[in-house]
């Protein structure tokens, strides 16, 4: 277990956690404010990645592609909201699960229809390509550092928006008691639309950012959706702060677990059994973490007071 | 088992539907399944029989989910785990040379019940969405456990040498024999669930769904009843897993992905919640529609997805709801 590997994997875990946060932030707000289970949040991440890939290919410039992808992802989210989701807010959770499951099926297939089943490849932008030496003899890709920086920037922005603006105040109030906010004369539909569009854009942003380092393919959002749910449940539904901490925790536990579970087990078991158990245990770690947290704190780490 | 013929008055707390619809629909459904092989003999027999067998197996799984979802409002998002347990019980025992259906079935049911008891006892501490997510977590744990079982195929799964043996003979080998065995299981599960729902146990379960606090106030501990229902549902789904492994003669972690759990929820809601036979109709609609649409275009999900959305938006109460005003 060398220190270099530990540092690199910690950075990878942070980067993964940041991406998870970008997806989970929108999900937790939509869930907390509107009490709406949006399984289609994962495909919005996928759509963001595809849009970035398409616009990058069109303009030949990743920065420009990203700039075009963001408003398009926002518009896309709003269209979905107007067409489908706003009719589901006052339905029960099962109806929401069913309808958004339908949206997943449709969009996963639609991107296959438009762009084909083969993964798309997006080049890392010129200025952010290559690696830098972050410590003597320790190289790390610049682009991944850029993702961490961008994610932290968005987190700070989100913190300011939610805690220090009027819209943010309404969102927080909505997460606590939406009918009361509405009764006080706030146009709750517009607030919902705003939150939803913003969440969709954040998920799209996450997708666009990972497009150069992951393969852009149909269904890429499915597993991240589940991880994002794990994050918001650990963090406490409706809490952006909880989502941030939980996202970093999940990112780190998952990444470090996959690299070091076998090594740690080797301290107690013989090496054959250790690598076998380690491989079995590593992908389960975050779910064990979640089950344990819910066992002791059945409403997550930072429950929103109601 | 004669609850069907003589339901206790308290079983009729659902908005009263004409007797014809209450009993007619399930009888029709089972009659259709019983007679289907005769019709199938006219055409592509093997194909139709195996498709319908798959429908019935999924119907058992969906019905077991309906027991906790429809009657107990316990939204389990990890129900496919039990399919996996049942299937792996067959696969693992068979790979050690134990091919007796009886032993495999006991192992499948026992393991499912045990897993349901342990995870249910933990999950019931949470409510609502947190319950959905913790059941998902247990499902995912089992999924990843299965992918790491390299002795039993890992990611790739495990091919069975043959179907389970009854009394040392390969009685389940023929398509017809297996079809009717599955139909028997489906009917048995249906009658069992029906009588459970109509019993005192079922009434407490439904009472706790409506208002848990009030049930406590009149002296029932909902926890024990809900846990009981969860264990029963898990065990029945384990049976479906046992049958699924036998049908495909193949076992793989793909049986317990979260998407599969989601599909089971979709099937139950699509058919009509809290009616048991709705789950059968939902399973048939889901699988047959998939089969028909995918025959037209490889992009069938682009039709199926919007169809689901439309069903939710315009047809409350699922297919049963559409057939009549049963759900008001």
TrEMBL record, chain A:
<feature type="transmembrane region" description="Helical">
    <location>
        <begin position="142"/>
        <end position="162"/>
    </location>
</feature>
<feature type="transmembrane region" description="Helical">
    <location>
        <begin position="66"/>
        <end position="85"/>
    </location>
</feature>
<keyword id="KW-0813">Transport</keyword>
<feature type="transmembrane region" description="Helical">
    <location>
        <begin position="6"/>
        <end position="31"/>
    </location>
</feature>
<dbReference type="GO" id="GO:0022857">
    <property type="term" value="F:transmembrane transporter activity"/>
</dbReference>
<feature type="transmembrane region" description="Helical">
    <location>
        <begin position="191"/>
        <end position="214"/>
    </location>
</feature>
<dbReference type="Pfam" id="PF02653">
    <property type="entry name" value="BPD_transp_2"/>
</dbReference>
<protein>
    <submittedName>
        <fullName>Branched-chain amino acid ABC transporter permease</fullName>
    </submittedName>
</protein>
<keyword id="KW-0472">Membrane</keyword>
<comment type="similarity">
    <text>Belongs to the binding-protein-dependent transport system permease family. LivHM subfamily.</text>
</comment>
<dbReference type="GO" id="GO:0006865">
    <property type="term" value="P:amino acid transport"/>
</dbReference>
<feature type="transmembrane region" description="Helical">
    <location>
        <begin position="277"/>
        <end position="296"/>
    </location>
</feature>
<keyword id="KW-0812">Transmembrane</keyword>
<keyword id="KW-1133">Transmembrane helix</keyword>
<feature type="transmembrane region" description="Helical">
    <location>
        <begin position="97"/>
        <end position="122"/>
    </location>
</feature>
<feature type="transmembrane region" description="Helical">
    <location>
        <begin position="226"/>
        <end position="256"/>
    </location>
</feature>
<keyword id="KW-1003">Cell membrane</keyword>
<dbReference type="InterPro" id="IPR001851">
    <property type="entry name" value="ABC_transp_permease"/>
</dbReference>
<dbReference type="InterPro" id="IPR052157">
    <property type="entry name" value="BCAA_transport_permease"/>
</dbReference>
<keyword id="KW-0029">Amino-acid transport</keyword>
<dbReference type="GO" id="GO:0005886">
    <property type="term" value="C:plasma membrane"/>
</dbReference>
UniProtKB/TrEMBL annotation, chain B:
<keyword id="KW-0472">Membrane</keyword>
<feature type="transmembrane region" description="Helical">
    <location>
        <begin position="301"/>
        <end position="323"/>
    </location>
</feature>
<feature type="transmembrane region" description="Helical">
    <location>
        <begin position="177"/>
        <end position="202"/>
    </location>
</feature>
<dbReference type="GO" id="GO:0015658">
    <property type="term" value="F:branched-chain amino acid transmembrane transporter activity"/>
</dbReference>
<keyword id="KW-0812">Transmembrane</keyword>
<dbReference type="Pfam" id="PF02653">
    <property type="entry name" value="BPD_transp_2"/>
</dbReference>
<dbReference type="InterPro" id="IPR001851">
    <property type="entry name" value="ABC_transp_permease"/>
</dbReference>
<keyword id="KW-1003">Cell membrane</keyword>
<feature type="transmembrane region" description="Helical">
    <location>
        <begin position="264"/>
        <end position="289"/>
    </location>
</feature>
<protein>
    <submittedName>
        <fullName>Branched-chain amino acid ABC transporter permease</fullName>
    </submittedName>
</protein>
<feature type="transmembrane region" description="Helical">
    <location>
        <begin position="76"/>
        <end position="95"/>
    </location>
</feature>
<feature type="transmembrane region" description="Helical">
    <location>
        <begin position="129"/>
        <end position="152"/>
    </location>
</feature>
<feature type="transmembrane region" description="Helical">
    <location>
        <begin position="101"/>
        <end position="122"/>
    </location>
</feature>
<dbReference type="GO" id="GO:0005886">
    <property type="term" value="C:plasma membrane"/>
</dbReference>
<dbReference type="InterPro" id="IPR043428">
    <property type="entry name" value="LivM-like"/>
</dbReference>
<keyword id="KW-1133">Transmembrane helix</keyword>
<feature type="transmembrane region" description="Helical">
    <location>
        <begin position="23"/>
        <end position="41"/>
    </location>
</feature>
């Amino acid at each position: 277990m060398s220190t270099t590997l530990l540092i690199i994997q910690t950075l990878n875990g942070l980067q993964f956690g940041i991406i998870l946060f970008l997806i989970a932030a929108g999900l937790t707000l939509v869930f907390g404010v509107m009490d709406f289970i949006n399984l289609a949040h994962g495909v919005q991440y996928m759509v963001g990645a595809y849009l970035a890939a398409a616009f990058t290919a069109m303009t030949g410039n990743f920065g420009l592609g990203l700039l075009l992808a963001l408003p398009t992802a926002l518009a896309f989210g709003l269209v979905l909201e107007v067409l489908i989701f706003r009719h589901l807010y006052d339905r029960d959770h099962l109806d929401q699960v069913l309808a958004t499951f339908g949206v997943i099926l449709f969009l996963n297939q639609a991107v296959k229809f438009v762009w084909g089943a083969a993964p798309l490849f997006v080049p890392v932008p010129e200025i952010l390509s290559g690696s830098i030496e972050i410590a003597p003899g320790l190289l790390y890709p610049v682009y991944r550092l850029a993702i961490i920086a961008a994610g932290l920037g968005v987190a700070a922005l989100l913190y300011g928006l939610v805690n220090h603006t009027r819209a943010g105040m309404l969102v927080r109030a909505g997460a606590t008691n939406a009918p009361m906010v509405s009764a006080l004369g706030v146009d709750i539909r517009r607030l919902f639309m705003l939150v939803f569009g913003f969440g969709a854009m954040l998920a799209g942003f996450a997708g666009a950012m990972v497009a150069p380092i992951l393969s852009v393919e149909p269904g890429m959002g499915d597993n991240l959706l589940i991880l994002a749910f794990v994050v918001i449940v650990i963090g406490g539904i409706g809490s952006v702060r909880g989502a941030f901490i939980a996202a970093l925790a999940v990112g780190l536990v998952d990444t470090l677990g996959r690299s070091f579970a076998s090594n740690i087990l080797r301290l107690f078991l013989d090496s054959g059994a250790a690598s076998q158990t380690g491989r079995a245990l590593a992908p389960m770690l975050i779910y064990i973490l979640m089950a344990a947290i819910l066992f002791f704190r059945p409403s997550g780490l930072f429950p929103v007071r109601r | 088992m004669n609850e069907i013929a003589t339901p206790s008055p308290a079983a009729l707390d659902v908005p009263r539907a004409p007797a014809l619809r209450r009993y007619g629909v399930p009888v029709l459904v089972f009659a259709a399944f019983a007679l289907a092989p005769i019709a199938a003999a006219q055409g592509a027999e093997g194909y139709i029989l195996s498709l319908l067998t798959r429908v019935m197996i999924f119907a058992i799984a969906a019905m077991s989910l309906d027991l906790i979802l429809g009657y107990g409002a316990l939204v389990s998002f990890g129900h496919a785990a039990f399919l996996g347990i049942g299937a792996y019980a067959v696969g693992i025992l068979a790979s050690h040379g134990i091919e007796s259906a009886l032993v495999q079935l006991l192992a499948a049911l026992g393991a499912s019940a045990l897993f349901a008891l342990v995870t249910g006892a933990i999950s019931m501490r949470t409510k609502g969405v947190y319950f959905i997510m913790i059941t998902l977590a247990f499902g995912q744990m089992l999924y990843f456990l299965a992918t790491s079982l390299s002795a039993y195929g890992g990611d790739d799964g495990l091919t069975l040498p043959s179907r389970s043996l009854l009394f040392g003979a390969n009685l389940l080998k023929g398509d017809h024999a297996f079809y009717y065995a599955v139909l028997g299981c489906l009917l048995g599960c249906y009658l069992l669930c029906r009588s459970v729902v109509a019993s005192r146990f079922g009434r407490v379960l439904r009472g706790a769904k409506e208002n848990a606090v009030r049930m406590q106030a009149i002296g029932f501990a909902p926890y024990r009843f809900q846990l009981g229902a969860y264990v029963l549902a898990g065990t029945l789904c384990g049976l479906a897993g046992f049958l699924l492994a036998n049908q495909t003669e193949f076992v793989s972690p793909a049986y317990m992905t979260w998407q599969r759990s989601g599909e089971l929820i979709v099937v139950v809601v699509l058919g009509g919640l809290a009616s048991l036979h709705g789950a059968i109709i939902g399973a048939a609609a889901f699988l047959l529609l998939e089969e028909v649409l995918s025959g037209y275009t490889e992009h069938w999900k682009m039709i199926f997805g919007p169809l689901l959305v439309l069903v939710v938006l315009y047809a409350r109460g699922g297919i049963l709801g559409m057939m009549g005003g049963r759900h008001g």
